[in-house]
Amino acid sequence: MPNYAVGHKIPDSDSICSAIALSYLKTTIGEPTVPARLGELSPETLFILDKFGFEQPELKTSYAGEGVYIVDHSDKVQGPDDLDEATVLGIIDHHKLGDITTSTPLECWIRPVGCTNTIIKMMYDFHGVEIPKDIAGAMMCAILSDTVIFKSPTCTTADIKCVEALAEIAGIDDPKELGMEMFKVKSAVEGTPARDLVFRDFKDFNMSDNLVGIGQLEVIDLAMLDNMKADLEAEIVKVKEEGNRHSVILLLTDIMKEGSELLVVSDDASVIERAYDAKLAEGKVWLDGVLSRKKQVVPPLQDAFAG
């Protein structure tokens, strides 16, 4: 019976490409592993899979009795609902250490880099396994996505070096050009229901026993969202109520201007204002230079809730 590699709920490109890349590596070293997903894929991820000739990983939400590698997260609220009934064989992640615990020893690769695929590239090097051309291309795209084509403050020298090495294997002459092509696909919002946009890249966090949902929409020009902002605001109110969340924040990130507008609904907006040292006006605030949910949005908010 094979093991599984799976990322977080509402999977992004890093989650999916990590599951694919890790499964190939593990299978190659004699541990049959299958990539899986916990939800539907975003247009950007579908673009990457199509470009490099991959099928979508199997949609699998139950892992009771299975061996599983967790990629791109370590927070229980983001993983499979029955993870406690599975055997967690390993965690490969680039976020803060979450609350997943295990009853048996596990393999852990957690590094402060911009993307899980950067860590998986290190794992390939460690095991001396050659990366296939198609997997190298997918890994490279995931790193470009997570680091916002190296603009994100989470981006490290390791991420840049990995993209260069993977581009060479994949035969991609200009990774940044492909990155912009990806972000144009990511920015295609017209005709998409507001709810789908809110959940395109959405994660729940447990902050001092408060459930906080944080979504992010990355576009190459914020003006693309002007006509739908009211719908997005109405939708996050519903999302907050449905999930009994303390707060929901939607980051509207302009990757060219390098900043984000936050749309906020909260039981206590003062916590949000304290976290970012900014005043909300009608539930909105622009934060210059903020591109990363992981590094710039979640930590100060957790501190504000803890304080």
Q: How would you describe this structure to a colleague?
A:
The chain has helices at 13-28, 43-51, 116-127, 133-146, 157-170, 175-186, 194-198, 229-242, 269-276, 293-306; strands at residues 3-6, 33-37, 58-59, 67-71, 87-93, 107-110, 202-207, 210-219, 247-254, 259-266, 284-288. It starts with a strand and ends with a helix. The longest helix has 16 residues, at 13-28. Helix 1 (13-28) packs antiparallel against helix 4 and helix 9 crosses helix 10. The mean pLDDT is 97. The strands form 2 sheets. It has a 6-stranded parallel beta sheet with strand order 3-2-1-4-5-6. Strands 7-8-9-10-11 form a 5-stranded mixed beta sheet, with helices on both faces. It has 2 domains: 3-184, inorganic pyrophosphatase (n-terminal core), CATH 3.90.1640; 194-306, Diaminopimelate Epimerase, Chain A, domain 1. The radius of gyration is 19 Å and the shape is globular. With 307 residues, it is α/β, with parallel strands linked by helices.
